[in-house]
Model the fold of this input.
Amino acid sequence: MGIVWGARPSIEDWLAAGTELLALPTTRVAMVLAPELALTPTELREQREQVARRAPTAGVADFHPDAELDTSKPARLVPFVRRSPDPLLQFVPLAILDSVRTQTGPASLSQQAQALGGLAYTGSQDIGDRIAVTNHERVLRDGEAIARLLDDIAADRRRSYPRVGISISTSR
Done:
């Protein structure tokens, strides 16, 4: 895990921290925190896009504590389940992402029975899609409790950081 400081870290700061972490022999996923960041979720996403364009060997995802809940579709839920105590960018080597996305597990007994019965089983669903559907079901069921826990973490951050000298932007 790395840290970039300041209300508006530069693209170069993000890239340097992510690249340095991915160069370590045991790193599979690099998380670069920005505890003083003064960007909205939309602004962080725009910054992530700039970083991703300059990091051709890594997938880059953004996580923000103020991401909104949208349960209309599984894919729209992703920013909410990526809420984090601090804004951050996650760097994952594309080779790892490709290996995970291309893996398909064997069909379950139920899926095999469906196929034998002429039903529409067409093989394993993409892992990202399976995760999105599972997350969607869970948040529909437990969303209020999850949101309360995330809000408690954010409140603790607002109380704790100033005590140790970390500034928190009020513009978020």
